[in-house]
Amino acid sequence: MLTRRDLLRSATAGAAALAAPSLLRADGPKGFELPKLPYAFDALEPYIDAKTMEIHHDRHHKAYVDNLNKALAGHADWLAKPIVEVVRDYKKLPPELQTPVRNNGGGHLNHTWFWQMMAKSGGAPKGELAKAIDASFGTLDGFKKEFAAAALSQFGSGWAWLVKGKGKPLAITKSANQDSPVTEGMAVLLGVDVWEHAYYLKYQNKRADYVNAWFSVVNWDFVSGLFAAK
Length: 230
Ligand SMILES: [Fe+2]
Prior knowledge:
Elements: H1 4-19, H2 50-71, H3 76-79, H4 83-89, H5 95-116, H6 127-137, H7 140-153, E1 158-164, E2 170-176, E3 188-193, H8 200-203, H9 207-214, H10 220-229
Antiparallel strand pairs: 1-2, 1-3
Helix pairs in contact: 2-5, 4-5, 6-7
């Protein structure tokens, strides 16, 4: 049975998903929390399988959150910051905390965005976002080709990103491990996780097949929200 607290939580989560930058808010004074998935584990089938989603969210993302809270224990000021600020500013931390916060803070931020960047009916870019994609990449297919090339050429674990560009409206970049473009001062619009934990159960070593399937579940409304918010 849902409690009033659950209802308030889901209403807040829904509003935040629409408004996009829920990451601009702190989770609370006790530190960071694993966000609920905005859909069921099997919602993205057949493109992303339920078992992968369950392990990815409940184990991998949870570990980033737990390890981030552990690393920042005793640093109440940092525990109370929005995660996007922690990842942007981690180089201001004492040297011994920078690596664990870079890895686990990045993992928490990247995955919190990643879940919201996917949806069962992804749709297609519209309005200003569609115009920006055309201006930067010619067509949506042109964007997909360039984005997939970044995802496939990331050696080892990492991410490919669509970010606000300098000069052109949009740009594509990639990062290793859990590094985030926000640390480089870029505004993130879309990211694909190319760690093997994101696809190995279903796709094994075929990263190209995973990325190609993943385009079917991109939540373009969410991307539009991030584009409009920046
Ligand atoms: Fe991941």
